[in-house]
Amino acid sequence: MSKQKFHILASKVHKWIGLILGIQLLFWVSGGFVMSWFHINQVRGDHLVSIEAPGRIDVADYSLPSLKAELAEYAEETTSIALDQLMGQPVFKVTLTDGKVVYFDAATGHALPQLGADEIRAIASGFYVGDGPLASVEFLEETEVEYRGSLPVWRADFSDSQNTSLYIHPETGQLLSTRTDLWRFYDFMWMLHIMDYDTRDDFNNPLLYTTAFAALFFVISGFVLLYFRFHRKDFNFIMGKRAPRSARKK
C-alpha cells in the first residue's frame, strides 16, 4: 500500500472512530470529573446518619436456659446464638441455617415479633440526623435501581433537600444503605462511565472492553496521522530557527 493510500485510510478510520467514540469519551471525562469532585463519604450520605456503638451488656445478667423452651422449634435450624442489642434493648440473636434471624428478649426469653412499620420508623429516626421529617416507610420485595442489596428491605424516606432514603434490614434493623439525590446523580454518571446499563456494578463488561479497545485504536490512528501531517519545518521554532521569508509570505 502506498504512503498516500495509507494516509487516506488512516484518516477515514480516525474520523469514523472519533465520531462513534466522541460521546462516550465525553461521558468518561465528565464521569471522572464528578467522581473526583465529590468526596465519597458525602456521596454515601455519611453526614446524614449516625450509628451509635452499642452499649456494654453484662453477660452475667442473662442466661440461655431461659430460651430452652422457645428454641425447641428451631433446634435443628440454629447455626449461632449471640447476645446483642436491638433498638437499645438486650436480645439473643439466633441465626438460622437459611440466613434468617430471630430475636428473643434477653430478659424474658420470649421471641420478639418481626419489625413492623412502627419499629422501622423509630429505627430510621434514630439513624437520621438530617433536617427533614420522616415522610414514609415502605416494605420492598423487589430490586430498585438505587438499591441492589439483599431483599426484602424497608425503605424510609425523608423530606429534606437531598430526598434522603434509608434502607433498613427487616429482621436486624441494621442500616444497609443511604441514598440521596447526590448519590443518584453520582450513580448515573458511574453507569455512563463503566457502560454497565443493567446492574451498574460490572466494571469488566464486554461493551467497556470493546469501547476501550476502539479508543486505543483511535489514539494510535491519530499518531499515524501526525506522522503524515507534521513536517520538519513545523519544529523550527523548537530549534530556534525561523522559516524562510518566502515560506512566511505563504
Automatic annotation (TrEMBL):
InterPro entries: PepSY-ass_TM. The chain crosses the membrane at residues 16-40, 207-228. The keyword Cell membrane does not apply. Keywords: Membrane, Transmembrane, Transmembrane helix. This is PepSY domain-containing protein.
